[in-house]
Amino acid sequence: MNLPRTPSFRLDGRRALVAGASSGIGLGCAVALAEAGAHVTLAARRTQKLEETAAAFASQGWTADILTLDIADTGATRDALAARDPYDILVNSAGLAIHSPATETDRADYDRVTDINTRGAYFLLREVAKRLIETGRPGSLMTISSQMAHVGGIERAVYCASKHAVEGMTKAMAIEWGPHKIRVNTLCPTFIRTPLTEPTFDNPERVAWIEEKIKLGRTGEVEDIMGGVVFLASDASALVTGTALLIDGGWTAD
User: Fold this and answer.
1) From edge to edge, which strands make up the β-sheet containing 39-44?
2) Domains of the chain by range and CATH?
């Protein structure tokens, strides 16, 4: 009797690019991919932080290099990726949230959020995919989206708009690039404790509201994201594309 075997979650021999890798969710994703055997390019705006992170990776025996990059600068993204070997895996964790009532949102804040969350994400995905298509390689491309890409939120109209757009582009790109064996997906976390989200967690009333919405009764930690990233990067998800992996504790189950 021939029994089926679970596809491998290992990523040995694969090259991964993680944007926003210097802290928080992006750092967790980079660690997860490195633990699974990938060579990771750590990309973010802060060079010194990237150097510190790469040194920490080396101390664990993981292979990594750094790329100083602001994905809002789409020209810099194009030039940086054109000069590098193709990446088998992309995780875009770069993002920005500026919250305000919709009637008070100004043009500058709208542009700052969408330049990174939507336009920057679009052209980063495009450049990684172009290099894969040029060289005939398959790949797995991921964007860290949000549960707010599937629901609305008070004082989050711009943020929600930017993340809903990411879900739309993900589906369209998955359709276009499927014939090239390039998979495109998102991960959609709930509120995750990171240095950037500490102001939210410092507000007891806001934490109580969040925990009431999350059916599992707790907020998220970076570690809650890491398994999903390895799954989507690996052969274990070989038939998964154009979809969102919701890591939201049941927030969107209503």
Assistant:
1) 64-68, 39-44, 15-19, 89-92, 139-144, 182-189, 244-247
2) 15-253 (3.40.50.720)
